[in-house]
Amino acid sequence: MASPAPPTAGPQALALLPSLTDELLEEIFLRLPTPADVARASAACPSFRRIITGRSFLRRLRAIQPPPLLGFAAYEGFHPAQPPHPSAPLARAFADAADFSYSFVPSGRWLTPWHPRDVRQGRVLLECTPECDPAFEYYDTVLLRDLDLAVCDPLSRRYSLLPRIPKNLRGQHKHLIGFGLFLAPTGEDDEETTFRVVCVACNKTMVVVFEFTSITGEWHIPAYLSCNSLGTVMTDTRYSSSCHDNEQSRFYWIVPWRSKLLVL
């Protein structure tokens, strides 16, 4: 008499197997000793890369291992970390694979090249403005209407050209000069392709915040302040508050020659 056939797994059990496998692989990848080992695992096969580049895995990995220092992006290009820094091999491989000349981004309206203004979460905020006389660099002003912006990923070579700040928004406040441009950090629940760009502009009496979000594809004004309420007067140069930094979702600007610190 033939033995009975082994029970067949139901559809729900079969559907559960791939997710269990992914969960086990995720736990293994989280236990790799260095970010370089994680990067090598990601390059091993498409299924590994899918798990490692997922938002859930990256969120857990960043809680355990802070991102390695690969280098910094400057006007003249990317400067990778050098030996004996432990990230030097990974930084060199990253520099070779990425395009920090931004040649894949279409030209702006002006003859000047794209220059980085901020780097965050693997993206670079690029600026293209009319050429100025280098002898008068610190007296240069850039009107918002002359500002071309783009956001790109030098590794994947994906990019987004931002629309110019609309005239109806610029016209609400006269003679504005762009002095703060940065990428706002995205939240853990945001889509991977989502980004926000903030431009803080000023004249002698007002500080105005413009924000662009990739979700709507539009600029808006979330806030503006009177300089009188801040107890200061801004100067007519784009460097009137050019030094900024981000800490715990707040942005800080140093106002040169005024002994002031602005917080957004």
Short description:
It contains seven helices and 13 strands. By secondary structure, it is an alpha+beta fold.
Spatial extent as radius of gyration: 24 Å
Residue windows where pLDDT falls under 50 for at least 5 positions: 6-10, 135-140, 236-242
Say how many strands there are: 13
**Number of discrete helical segments:** 7
Which structural class best describes the helix and strand composition?
Answer: alpha+beta
Average pLDDT works out at 78
- Span of the ends, CA to CA: 80 Å
Q: What is the 3D shape?
A: elongated
Order of helices and strands: HHHHEEHEEEEHEEEEHEEE
In percent, how much strand structure appears in the residues?
A: 25-35%
Arrangement of strands in the largest sheet:
3-4-5-6
Query: How many domains make up the 3D coordinates?
Result: 3
Query: Largest beta sheet, briefly?
Result: 4 strands, antiparallel
Helix amount, in percent? Answer: 10-25%
